[in-house]
Amino acid sequence: MTPLLQVENIAKMYGARIGCANVSFDLYPGEVMGIVGESGSGKSTLLNCLAGHLQPDAGAVCFDTRTEGLRNTVTMSEPERRMLSRTDWAFVHQHARDGLRMNVSAGGNVGERLMAVNARHYGDIRAKAIDWLGRVEISADRIDDRPTVFSGGMQQRLQIARNLVTGPRLVFMDEPTGGLDVSVQARLLDLLRGLVREMGLSAIIVTHDLAVVRLLADRLMVMKDGHVIESGLTDQVLDDPQHAYTQLLVSSVLQV
Amino acid sequence: MITVENVSKSFTLHNQGAAEIPVMHDASLSVAPGECVALVGASGAGKSTLMRMIYGNYLTQSGKIMVGDLDIVSAAPRELIHLRRTTLGYVSQFLRVVPRVSTLDVVAEPLMVTGSNRDLAMERAKALLLRLNIPQRLWRLSPTTFSGGEQQRVNIARGFAYPYPALLLDEPTASLDPTNRATVLEMIAEAKARGAAIIGIFHDHAARDKICDREFDVTAFTPDKLS
Amino acid sequence: MTDYNFAYLDEQTKRMIRRAILKGLAIPGYQVPFASREMPMPYGWGTGGVQVSAAVLTPEDRFKVIDQGADDTTNAVSIRRFFEKTAGVAVTEATAEASVIQTRHRIPELPLREDQILVYQVPIPEPLRFLEPSEVETRKMHSLEEYGLMHVKLYEDISQHGTIATAYAYPVKVEGRYVMDPSPIPKFDNPKLEMAGVQLFGAGREQRIYAVPPYTQVVSLDFDDYPFAPTKADHACDLCGATDSYLDELIMDDAGGRMFMCSDTDYCGTRRVAGHVGAQAAALAEDAA
Questions:
Q1: CB nearest to C225's CB, from A111, A118, A122
Q2: Model confidence pTM above 0.90
């Protein structure tokens, strides 16, 4: 089986300071990987390097493209990379307003990715938008409302619909449940899990919330000072942590 | 089906002066298809530890644990994920699910992740819940709000939804009333009959005697510090 | 003769603008940055168009200026006088006689010929600006041909109004490549963007020049199920009876009286001279008498 994403020795420096270094891993189709660590551990830097938002200083991020097999996305041309991020990739931001167009209706937000890949039938676009709003539990009669009048949880669900409408194969998520109420978080987690399963998505989720990764991620990487210090099955890393820092991290949270 | 060869395990507590606690030494065990083996030994002797090592939940320092064709000790995460979906089931004492997900969905999930048709998965989940006497009015609710006994039965239903060739059962009959306890024993017997290799921890002696083919005393492999 | 250099701008500046124009013609629809000069009129009064006109005018040209189709509005009159004074060129109100036509918000009804240049005054040259405020991002979108956002705007129109309600500055795709703002002309004029004449667009405040060479394909964006439709008031001109021209609506009194007339004054006048008569032409003539 070919990995969907093959990451080799990714490194990113901020001047003399390490953003992340020596990160390598394979992600297979259908796998959800969590990346945990405290603020400044390099997990967001890593995610942005993987998603093409930051140019890494070294290393390769190879993605199994539909037409040409494994391609290094770090060295591919920008139009190709941007095309990937509109089609096979998705990025869910922590703050929905970073991932949504706040002055465009919910339907327009969901439809944008379709129109970006040349959907030109209004009726079809709208039908798809309604279908996706339904899947993320937003009622169809809100389709013409702008996200500014949505609650935080709804905005986040809209962001997810907007990202998944083109049927991506890899989703990057940066603290997708951060800043939401606990009950809203649970609903979102349930939704994400269902979508991951139904669509056979692979996902990389950056979070500092160990409860979130336990419920969502099959695998886990623990980062500290820009390095991956431990990785493995999520429950194994959380229940039998090997590294001193991971042990501290796990013992520091309230029982989950 | 399940073969444990000379496995050892210790915990290193880095944040408590790097204290090293050996918990298992040179244990070996083999379970054939259709066989049910009970892990026995005093509390703290390492029954749950061994079971978690077999499930891949705890890392094993040395030795070999074969489940089917896969060595748990050296397997890559994705191989373990696949094994847990299709081969190795685990009924733990604790129910760990996403809040808000309905009991039916929780029970049907192991079938859904292996690609079952949703209707069939739901039918199977309903049959199991019915058999384990979970009142129908609770099926649409999340089991996180249930009583201990109800949660345990949901856990069992979930563990038996998919016909795993190998099963790990951690106290499946604890806190069950006699009727449900009998049902669970019956379900274990059925799993045995279809050829599942089963390892269980039963504090319920009667249940153990009734369902298990033999006992495996982990005390023999418990390092000295415990005695 | 005056103390001004021919057509007000110095020769260096005109060369700089001509280079931008040539680049624009070479890459139809592409917005070429240029060093816009201060002109003796406020921004919004056509400073971009005036600089382009100044750069293309020769002493032999005959110049026409229209504002919303009319030759006799303040803006049109002052720009026409400006070049009469600074370039000494001949001027005209007849579309057929002009070699350079500067326009605000209209394309003349009479089809232009190959020896004519149409210069547009452009307030906001960036068609993507409405949805994407970042100039860096919009430039990237143009260079990578990422135009999905343009259709989001049309989608929003349909979802809010039931049809594409954008009635002017309707976005077009030029020669299958660049999406372009045709300046705030009514979408009725969009089909005329494919023409024999040279079309030059100048945005003074935004410092951009772009162009559409003769016979270039210009397609108005739309959806398969909501195709582009040029629209006008469903009426004939009350003065000349034309049914094929873009009409202005004029409120006549406070009792609901109104009339429609061609926004292109030269077109209307030429027709009336040729004997065409609209529904209210007679009544108006009596009033005047």
A1: A122
A2: no
